[in-house]
Amino acid sequence: MGYLVGIDIGTSGTKTVLFDVNGNTIASSTVEYDMFQPEIGWAEQDPEDWWRATCQSLNNVIKKSGIKPEDIKGVGLSGQMHGAVLLDKEGNVLRSAIIWCDQRSSDECDEITDIIGYDRLIEIAANPALTGFTAPKVMWVKKHQPEIFEKIAHILLPKDYIRYKLTGEFATEVSDASGTLFLNVRERKWSKEIVEKLGLNMEWLPVVYESQVISGKVCKKAAELTGLKEGTPVVGGGGDQAAGAVGNGIVKKGLVSSTIGTSGVVFAYTDKVTIDPEGRVHTFCHAIPDTWHVMGVTQGAGLSLKWFRDNFGFEEKTLGMLTDTDPYVYMDKEAEQAEPGCGGLIYLPYLMGERTPHLDPYAKGVFFGLTAKHRRHEVIRSILEGVVFSLRDCLEIIKGMGIPVEEVRASGGGGKSKLWRQIQADVFRTSIVTINSAEGPALGVAILAGVGTGIYANVSEACDAIIKRVNVQYPDEKVSGVYEKNYKLYTQLYPALKNLYRS
Known about the structure:
Elements: E1 3-9, E2 13-20, E3 25-32, E4 44-45, H1 47-65, E5 72-79, E6 85-87, E7 97-98, H2 106-116, H3 118-125, H4 134-144, H5 146-149, E8 154-156, H6 158-167, E9 171-173, H7 174-177, E10 183-184, E11 189-190, H8 192-197, E12 207-209, E13 214-217, H9 220-226, E14 233-235, E15 238-239, H10 240-247, E16 254-260, E17 264-270, E18 282-285, E19 292-298, H11 302-312, H12 314-323, H13 327-336, E20 346-348, E21 366-368, H14 376-400, E22 405-411, H15 418-428, E23 432-435, H16 441-452, H17 459-466, E24 469-473, H18 477-501
Parallel strand pairs: 1-5, 5-15, 9-12, 16-22, 22-23
Antiparallel strand pairs: 1-2, 2-3, 4-7, 6-8, 10-11, 13-14, 16-17, 17-19, 18-19, 20-21, 23-24
Helix pairs in contact: 1-6, 2-4, 10-16, 11-12, 11-14, 12-13, 13-14, 14-15, 15-18
Family: Belongs to the FGGY kinase family.
Domain Carbohydrate kinase FGGY C-terminal: 258-451
Binding site for substrate: 81-82
């Protein structure tokens, strides 16, 4: 039997999953690493940490499964989007990668908009200049670290640095490239106009492929370090959201995913370029040829709960260690004790600024309505609810763009929580569906690897064969009424605080 590998280079760790050709998980391994914040609003990671985690997790799954490396027919890569990995002409990393949630480049966004023009940016890149994207990060290095900028020979995204280490090839694919601000999203190729007007070099950018196309093969050195067989094909793969959408079966009209990872994303398929003129949601290439997607992003989704766990969750972490149970399971049980609406306590999840719908790097997290009556379990539940309110902001914009929403599928770490899924059903006032695999991006890029190596005819056929609906949670109208009241108040809080955030 043949096997496929999906590697997802995430913000908190790299997850490698081995699948059989029917999409069944054979073995999985996650290796964590740190995110560094040298200043408030900054976020960096060491690309070598990603590579070490990739090598370790690959060795782990091959050892766990006991399969022969030659039975692995293809590898797919997924990863956190928008990061700036800068290499010199020898392929050495020049500085820590500035990653997706970094907010330092607000001035550079204004500069890019002035140089290219707002309307022209939307016309070419389908999105305004945002601090999350790659281009403003490179421009920040150009302005603040000219000694590093002058040595740049290659600009890569996180997963594409791993591709380089695996294959020796400088390559990317359309879904991840869409989030750089360098890509012509309609034409699915680099924009020479944007790159050259910003004073950058087209030669710094990797070859861009469609997502299922083989972009390279595992080289001898990588084979020795990872346990893979030399020559194993590596396909383009996808940015984590497009890859996760494939892994959730979001490959046709009417299907939408709601993903709660470190960030939160509402993702909708579209067969044409559909743009929000206000730039509140992103329009990117999908990981399927001649299709696109629209997604709204909240920066601090699972990050908000992780922040609480890391700073105030000593008891849950200790109990989890003693019982070999995820601490989030205990936090879920606590949150279940609180009434929906948390007695008027409302959380704004803007720990790392916010994208949809506010596009504001200065936004900050807020607990509003806190009283002496509130207890720990209500604070935890208010975090879950506040994140979902932010996701509803995304969903409302997508609906307003005329994109049909017939079914919402939950995914990501937050999608494993029955409570968090029910809160989504009640806040969105729509049923929430789960599928037979929770592997999301890793499964998605394994499917793309299967298409690229000829195991499947195309992505849609593969998804129809592999992905099945297994559970549906329906909204409770009474609870939805409580949330409707709190959501209306939630939407009034950011405008009231907007001018205070900068000061």
